[in-house]
């Protein structure tokens, strides 16, 4: 079962904000890494499934080896399209601030985000969050912002709405070394569950009811070129947890 990390009052507020919003902008930190892109696109795919107008904006370019993720081609780079990005930010109903704890971490975007009349929601796992959001979901003990996105979607009651594309992005963001994750997946499919492969709690999120096929790029340490993706079909408890469920159960709110 999904342990309850995020305060229920914050879950309730997030549900209301998303239900009332038509235009949602997701922003993340300068020099985006796997967690920034994975969490942003994971939330993007969920909100898109709810028929919201969603845009992901980051301050500058992200690494090529993350561009295999579904939706990455639609991410707007602020330093290249400032005027258009400023318009989206100003017109947003809700701005989701992912994987950063202070406005300075979004570089030149900070002024536009601060000035926007949109409701602002922080979802982050870094220490010492600044107070610039109406909802602040800050949990430094959680391994990644991508894990928090997964928890948020499930706690809002939308687990079944997580698409294959969204799962791929969330799973990538939850893993600090993607190449190691691919190796782990191969070990799981061929030899059973690996042992002691991640820090305690890194992937032990929940037990999930249905298998899901995911595509991940074949990467090796020192070689981060974008290569043809491999596909593997795993029960989703293997994707999001390191322990086999005793019995199948749905994630609870």
Q: How would you describe what is shown here?
A:
The model is unreliable at 177-213 and 218-253 (pLDDT under 50). The strands form two sheets. A six-stranded parallel sheet has the order 3-2-1-4-5-6, sandwiched between helices. Strands 7-8 form a two-stranded antiparallel sheet. Strand 4 (94-98), helix 4 and strand 5 form a beta-alpha-beta unit. By secondary structure, the chain is an alpha/beta fold. Helix 2 (34-49) packs parallel to helix 5 (145-155) and helix 5 crosses helix 6 (164-174). It has helices spanning 8-20, 34-49, 82-91, 110-115, 145-155, 164-174, 178-191, 236-240; strands spanning 23-28, 53-58, 76-77, 94-98, 119-124, 135-138, 211-217, 229-235. 34% of the residues lie in helices and 17% in strands. It has eight helices and eight strands, in the order H-E-H-E-E-H-E-H-E-E-H-H-H-E-E-H.
Count of individual beta strands = 8
User: For the terminal residues, how far apart are their CA atoms?
Assistant: 10 Å
- Count of separate DSSP helical elements: 8
The whole-angstrom Rg is 17 Å
Shape label:
globular
Helix content: 25-40%
* Spatial strand arrangement across the major sheet: 3-2-1-4-5-6
Oligomeric assembly: single chain
Structural class: alpha/beta
Main pleated sheet: 6 strands, parallel
List unreliable stretches of 5+ residues: 177-213, 218-253
Order of helices and strands: HEHEEHEHEEHHHEEH
The fraction of residues in strands falls at 15-25%
Global mean pLDDT: 78
């Amino acid at each position: 079962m999904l342990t309850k990390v995020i305060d229920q009052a914050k879950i309730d507020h997030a549900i209301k904000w998303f239900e009332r919003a038509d235009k949602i902008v997701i922003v993340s930190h300068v020099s985006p890494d796997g967690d920034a892109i994975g969490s942003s696109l994971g939330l993007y795919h969920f909100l898109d499934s709810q028929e919201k107008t969603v845009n992901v904006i980051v301050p500058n370019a992200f690494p090529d080896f993350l561009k295999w993720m579904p939706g990455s081609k639609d991410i707007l780079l602020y330093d290249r399209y400032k005027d258009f990005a400023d318009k989206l930010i100003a017109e947003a109903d809700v701005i989701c601030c992912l994987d950063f704890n202070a406005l300075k971490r979004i570089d030149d975007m900070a002024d536009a985000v601060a000035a926007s009349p949109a409701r602002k929601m922080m979802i982050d796992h870094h220490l010492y969050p600044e107070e610039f959001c109406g909802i602040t979901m800050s949990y430094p003990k959680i391994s990644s912002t991508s894990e928090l996105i997964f928890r948020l979607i499930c706690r809002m009651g939308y687990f079944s709405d997580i698409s294959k594309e969204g799962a791929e992005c969330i799973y990538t963001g939850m893993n600090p070394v993607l190449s190691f994750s691919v190796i782990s997946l191969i070990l799981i499919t061929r030899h059973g569950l690996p042992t002691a492969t991640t820090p305690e709690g890194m992937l032990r999120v929940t037990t999930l009811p249905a298998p899901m096929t995911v595509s991940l790029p074949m990467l090796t340490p020192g070689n981060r070129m974008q290569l043809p993706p491999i596909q593997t079909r795993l029960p989703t408890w293997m994707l999001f947890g390191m322990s086999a469920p005793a019995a199948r159960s749905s994630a609870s709110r």
